[in-house]
Amino acid sequence: DAGVIQSPRHEVTEMGQEVTLRCKPISGHDYLFWYRQTMMRGLELLIYFNNNVPIDDSGMPEDRFSAKMPNASFSTLKIQPSEPRDSAVYFCASSLGSSYNEQFFGPGTRLTVL
Amino acid sequence: GEDVEQSLFLSVREGDSSVINCTYTDSSSTYLYWYKQEPGAGLQLLTYIFSNMDMKQDQRLTVLLNKKDKHLSLRIADTQTGDSAIYFCAEAGRRALTFGSGTRLQVQP
Question: What is the dihedral of CA A23, A28, A30, A35, to 10 degrees?
Fold first, then answer.
């Protein structure tokens, strides 16, 4: 069974460009999480969804960040416009039944904003 | 507030035991988790412990929980070079799982 799938695995873009990160959760999982990992700040929860509905977006840094989950098998995290300080590894994770249950992580997208 | 704290770095020799420590804040956590992150990969669940347990053993892994002190530890026996990774503890926080900053374990041959 496929795990959490993220694309692209690597993204290099220039400041000011729009960036879209994609995630496909494990089939049947009803919770989806977006995290950002940097050396300075560690692993930060940005937003999570339950049954495609955003439950808590208090971790989203600012209005430049937006996330959607149009259906149970797909979510996007968009940054517009991107800035160099957005450079990080972005992880998507999914879980079944609760936001406190085991989370299954994707391989991450390494974003570099020049 | 929510703060799961871990030391940042641990270096051991191959064959020795490793002990990674974590302190957490939410005494109502039902589960406490240990995740492992290998280079270039996402986090993967290593083991977990119910809050009503003091200890859990799983092959080379031993988890100890001290609820009074809100202290969690992960012991890896006979540490191998393949155990080199970042280890995160996590508790059930206000929003979802709250992860510590991670402890980078370096195993020297």
Answer: -30
Q: Average the pLDDT over B36-41 and give the result.
A: 93
Nearest to B96 among A45, A107, A108 (CB): A45
* pLDDT higher than 90, residue A92: yes
* CA dihedral angle for residue A27, residue A25, residue A95, residue B42, rounded to 10 degrees: 130
pLDDT in tens, B71-106: 999 999 999 999 999 999 998 877 788 899 999 999
Separation of alpha carbons A101 and B2, rounded Å: 18
Which member of A56, A105, A106 has the closest CB to residue B95?
Answer: A56
CB A30 within 8 A of CB A104: no
